[in-house]
Amino acid sequence: MAKTTRRQRKTTGRVMHEFKHGELGRGRAGGKVKSRKQAIAIALSEAGASNRQSPTQKRKARKKTTKKQARGVTGQQRQEAGKTVKRTALSKKTTRKKTTRKSAQRKTATRKTPTRKIALRKKATKRTVSRKKTPR
Q: What residue segments make up the domains of the chain, in order of their start?
């Protein structure tokens, strides 16, 4: 077997950690991986160390995994960030209240002022007067 790089070993270790703690999901379906062999296959695939992939597929897999780790979307990162997620959810609620107040202010700002109302009434009366004058 070919020698793996430090990053590949790190990714493999992370995936196996997720498997041990029941956080490793199966692709888009999202079911939990129960087989150790399947977990190893996923780990090698994500790390780009699998012998079943072509070099281009390995590069794509490595890129995808790096992006996933940077975003914090891996199962391990989600589990560790559980407490912070709850805090951010609370802060989102407070920001929602602020945005509703802003929208109420906007509504009052966009309401028609008395001078605009008068101008609109004049236009409307002119239209109706011009319609009445023309014979049918």
A: 6-80, 83-133
